[in-house]
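We emphasize that the prediction below concerns an isolated chain of 91 residues; any contacts that depend on oligomerization or on bound cofactors are therefore not represented. The input was used exactly as deposited, without trimming of termini.
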Amino acid sequence: MEEGELYYHAIMDKFILPLTEKSPYIIIQPTTYSDKTTFVNYRVKTKINGLDLIEAELSDIESKYAEEMGYAYGAILKNVLGDYAKIFTDL
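Result of the prediction step, given as a token string:
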């Protein structure tokens, strides 16, 4: 396979085609492996908790990101404080 064919396959068959077929997934490949192999592909959902990332507005995506990161931050903080409380019983 020549370089142009590889680019076409990577862009069209793995990314653009699933979007045109209204597939709930796109296929991505980590850049670490992109020039070495084709077997490390990740099928990623385009919807997160009901928000379609392909059709959503940027403000909706930013809001969902802030919500998800806020939840993760709160969970981590709770775990860290719980661990500190076990170590330092005076807290």
